[in-house]
Write a structure and sequence with these properties.
Layout: H1 2-5, H2 8-30, H3 34-45, H4 63-103, E1 115-119, E2 123-129, H5 146-162, E3 165-171, H6 185-202, E4 210-215, E5 234-240, H7 243-249, H8 255-260
Parallel strand pairs: 3-4
Antiparallel strand pairs: 1-2, 2-5, 3-5
Length: 268
């Protein structure tokens, strides 16, 4: 009994100490500021809460991000396709320009070529000069010289072959003196442009391919040229790729082949 009762006081003492600790906590808390009491109360309401949000361990699926990524990939694919088509068109247009020079047996390096060809964003722009050294038309008229007819025939063959859409503009130099006072450079530039249209149709160009014929007289001189310079005596033909053109071009080559093919850079 003595041995068994000898430890009872320890249990009683432990209970006493627990009660004293509880009393101490109650007295300490009662003496604290109200804000501390509220914060302490909230802690004991959810003692196992974490400052981090609940997380399953799997990254959430962001639909918007996925759509943006897909849209970006589609846009990149379209840009590459557009670049590919542009390279094919550029290669084709340079090839057509070089063919035309060859048809006329012209040296592209001449300072004063009878014709100038530029590759534009949608096709070719050809300027046919009416120089005194190599006239396109008979003097002060809309009648072609033999050289002019040869040039128009070659041009008609290219237009018909590649199905270009055509606009024709006639121009004259400033101060041009014509024998008939009632016949001005407006009439002359318009008649020359229309004469070119008639010859192209005569040499097998489909009439519906010619979209516009205009005479500008001396109102649009060449850049960096004196308005009275002979170089302003000219007709300009703009050849635009048609949808039929582009449909035929797409399967012809690839960007790598287009880059590998040497082409002439034809600028004024």
């Amino acid at each position: 009994m003595a041995a068994g009762g000898g430890g009872a006081w320890k249990v009683a003492f432990a209970d006493f100490m627990t009660a004293m600790m509880a009393l101490f906590l109650v007295l300490w808390i009662s003496a604290q500021d109200k804000k501390i009491l509220i914060a302490t109360s909230k802690y004991f309401q959810s003692p196992f809460s974490s400052p981090m949000e609940d997380h399953s361990g799997v990254m959430p699926f962001n639909k918007q991000s996925s759509e943006n990524s897909s849209s970006s990939e589609d846009s990149s694919g379209k840009d590459k396709a557009a670049d590919k088509n542009k390279q094919i068109e550029l290669s084709f247009l340079n090839s057509v320009a070089a063919d035309f020079y060859r048809l006329l047996h012209l040296d592209q390096t001449l300072d004063q070529k009878p014709i100038d060809i530029q590759v534009t964003s949608d096709g070719l722009r050809l300027t046919l000069f009416d120089r005194s050294s190599n006239p396109l038309f008979k003097e002060n008229s809309a009648e072609f010289t033999d050289w002019g007819i040869n040039m128009i025939q070659s041009l008609a063959w290219l237009i018909d072959r590649h199905h270009f859409r055509v606009t024709i503009d006639g121009h004259t130099k400033a101060g041009l003196k014509l024998p008939d006072e009632g016949y001005t450079d407006w009439e002359l530039s318009s008649d020359r442009a229309n004469a070119a249209r008639r010859k192209l149709v005569l040499y097998a160009v489909e009439p519906e391919l010619i979209e516009r014929v205009t005479g500008y007289a001396a109102t649009r001189p060449l850049p960096k040229e004196d308005p009275a310079a002979e170089a302003n005596q000219r007709i300009t033909l703009s050849l635009a790729l048609s949808s039929k053109n582009r449909a035929k071009l797409e399967p012809l080559t690839t960007p790598g082949e287009a880059a590998a093919k040497p082409v002439a850079v034809l600028t004024p």
